[in-house]
Structures
1.
Amino acid sequence: MKLGFITFALISIFLSQAAIAQQQPPQYALEPVTEGVYRFVAGNYRSIVVVGDNMLAITDPISPQAATWLKPVLAERFKQPLRYMIYSHSHPDHTYGGEVFSDGSIRVVAHALAAEEMQRSRAQTRLPDLTFTDSLTLDLGGRSIKLQYHGANNGYGSVSMRISPDRVLHVVDWIVVGRLPYRDFKGYDINGMIHSTQAVLEYDFDTFIGGHAEMGNKQDVRHYLDYLTSLYEAVLTGMLAGKSLTQLQQEISLPEFKDIPKYDDWFALNVEGVYNTLDNSNYVLIRPEVKAITTD
């Protein structure tokens, strides 16, 4: 009886501690990358702070909680005023929290498609007031950020950001280093991801900072592109042969990419995401040359 009570008490304490841990705010940190580029870490999310001679620029605020943590840190650590907040794309898990930086001297920058979508969907964050359609370069004094649109890839108006002279490339969501693409590619355009990643590999950069996971280099981005193209080809070939999604998830294996974290957890979901894209957006399954789908 006593032993049972002790066991019950220990289990209760463990569950209470687990519940408290789940309620804890994400870990925040501002990590130096180069002399003028810092990575802002908020749990599983990443954005950047760029320090020029005359001013600061930040990218995605991520959330009201993250932005509230970051704002006083910027004021304490840097003498330059914040002048630009740049949205990487339209999705709320990166753009929310913008209202924390409500100072009218701070310009909110985004691609025109991202700004349009945020306004159309009534996003509850500070909306962009400086937009562009192709590319835009922001001069911070001794350091610049070039924003470039590459077409559809993830969300609306997703752009790459090149920081000079630091040779840093920042891309959110459609390139991830140190992890598989997110689950079943919800909100992604696999063809656009491939095209956009091919485009940025033409740039000169040494350091890659993504919106999630790890930092890397140009070779890491190539490895990621190889994964995307291999996955796409494997799924497309199977669909053209009349194989069902279940069959493809059971049969496709890309062992050369098993070193990428989340392979065991998300690979089948990645297959599903590409399959659904090729079915819903590319209409592969209604092509006359495609064999009838075999039964599972």
2.
Amino acid sequence: MNTAAAKRTDYLSWDEYFMAVALLSAQRSKDPNTQVGACIASRENKIVGVGYNGFPIGCSDDELPWARQGDYLNTKYPYVCHAELNAVLNAISTDLRHCRIYVSLFPCNECTKVIIQSGIAEIIYLHDTYADTDQTKAAKRMIDICDHISYRPFASSRSLITLSFS
């Protein structure tokens, strides 16, 4: 008779795990309005890259603006590197073909170009906040006509994962 304890049944799925890593990565962003995180996973379910939105390395986040509105050069938009771009640039491999990218926010058209060019095969996103913008419409149009990439919303039966340092 086997008296060993049964394995846990409430463990994270792979999708939940990688999206949680993306959300945790977003917490590194210093953007006061929008914190976005990304996590790239291989077919073998290994993390190969993570990123969050922020200024390029060496560009002081005290000297560049964080504003969302105003004169273009006085907003964050010409300076911020998006989470998806950082995840691709931070990847431990140059071959991202067949990988999946988990993002807390649907990628813009510029990040979608990077994702497609890198060979990533699937985008799993948590929020599609800007679905009605031209940037998101362009991103989806590129994905829809590209034969090696797809996208889907993140789905989970849980609404919360709690982390504790104690």
